[in-house]
Amino acid sequence: MIYHLERDTFIPGAQQEVFSFFSDARNLERLTPGFLGFEIMTPMPMEMKAGALIDYRLKLFGVPLRWRTRIDEFEPISHFVDVQLSGPYRLWRHRHEFRTVPGGTQMRDQVDYELPFGPIGTVARTLFVRSTLDRIFDYRSSVIQDLFRRR
């Protein structure tokens, strides 16, 4: 079963500045909670563009994992899409959209994801995957607000 997560975040910064921040892969570590032990393995700096590959290492519930994503779409200052090629999900497609609104930028995250293991994956989502994704996106929103308020 494919699940959908959607989040809207107001960011007090100009669209170009916000897009530049999010399209710099080095900022991913800053936006990820420590409990994931998230580390980018791809040598930096890297050019963010359609076709770019990014490799990560993280721990999910204490289990070390590798994750590889590809940037499928990249439209400066509008949006970009990353898709998991290998990692913990059967499907992961994350669209990041940016638009100017009064006082800043509205960012919309749209994630379509599917878990492996059939019915076991469905139970895992109910028990802890959904709440963990909420924690990750809540943390990200909080960090973003702090970073852009200080600019």
Give an account of the 3D structure.
A seven-stranded antiparallel β-sheet has the order 1-7-6-5-4-3-2. The radius of gyration is 15 Å and the shape is globular. Helix content is 26%, strand content 42%. By secondary structure, the chain is of the alpha+beta class. The chain has a single domain (2-149), classed as START domain (Alpha-D-Glucose-1,6-Bisphosphate, Chain A, domain 4).
User: How widely separated are the two ends?
Assistant: 41 Å
Helix content: 25-40%
Order of helices and strands: EHEEEEEEH
CATH domain class: Alpha Beta
- How would you classify the helix and strand content by structural class? alpha+beta
Task: Specify the overall morphology.
Answer: globular
Name given to the CATH homologous superfamily: START domain
User: How many structural domains are formed by the residues?
Assistant: 1
Low-confidence stretches: none
Count, helices: 2
On the 0 to 100 scale, the average pLDDT is 93
Briefly say what this structure is.
By secondary structure, the protein is an alpha+beta fold.
Topology overview:
Blueprint: E1 2-11, H1 15-22, E2 39-40, E3 53-60, E4 63-75, E5 79-86, E6 91-101, E7 104-114, H2 118-149
Antiparallel strand pairs: 1-7, 2-3, 3-4, 4-5, 5-6, 6-7
Any key phrases for this structure?
26% helix; Alpha-D-Glucose-1,6-Bisphosphate, Chain A, domain 4; 151 residues
